[in-house]
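Reading group handout, session on sequence-to-structure problems. Before we discuss, look at one worked example. The prompt was deliberately terse, the way you'd type it at a terminal:

> structure Transgelin

The input record follows.
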Amino acid sequence: MAAKGGMANKGPSYGMSRQVQDKIDSKYDPELEQILVEWIARQCGSSVGNPEPGKMGFQAWLKDGCVLITLINSLSTGDGPVKKAHTSPMAFKQMEQISQFLSAAEKYGVIKTDMFQTVDLWEGKDLAAVQRTLSALGSLAVTKDEGTYKGDPSWFFKKAQENKRDFSDEQMKAGKNVIGLQMGSNKGASQEGMSYGRPRQIM
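And the output record:
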């Protein structure tokens, strides 16, 4: 059962833990929330509905994992990576669905450092991390350009892609004889006329 403050089974925090939580909370971006909500609603269709405005509404909308699973399934061609989401009031089932979304997002290409932890969403500990994961997912969908992305491409930046080059053996051998400019050059350099400190005094 969720406490009034939005976190499950957790009282208010004080002192240092309060300062840490305030700092985490300050990273949450209301403008990004609007972009993410609009993208998810377009991507998944009317079945996911819309959340109440604000951080708590955003958390409540995503907390059971159903919207997240619908989102990740909508980005794949063919069958989705996660079986159908089930609405459940049971905490462990909701957390399991969030974990399934995270696994599928990682397989889709979201890197570990962009991923939130299940408790970040379920307990509302770090909703900015949830935003970061969803933004990374959106960026990947725009970058992959598989025809499954249904939002505005300007909402997310396109990730850099590999620029693979193939060189012949002759080109590789020729490259070994080139001294890169970062290594410097000693052409025309000598120690003539240079002195370091005073000459040695012999008495």
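Points for discussion. First: The chain has a mean pLDDT of 80. Second: The domain at 18-144 is CATH 1.10.418.10 (Actin-binding Protein, T-fimbrin; domain 1).
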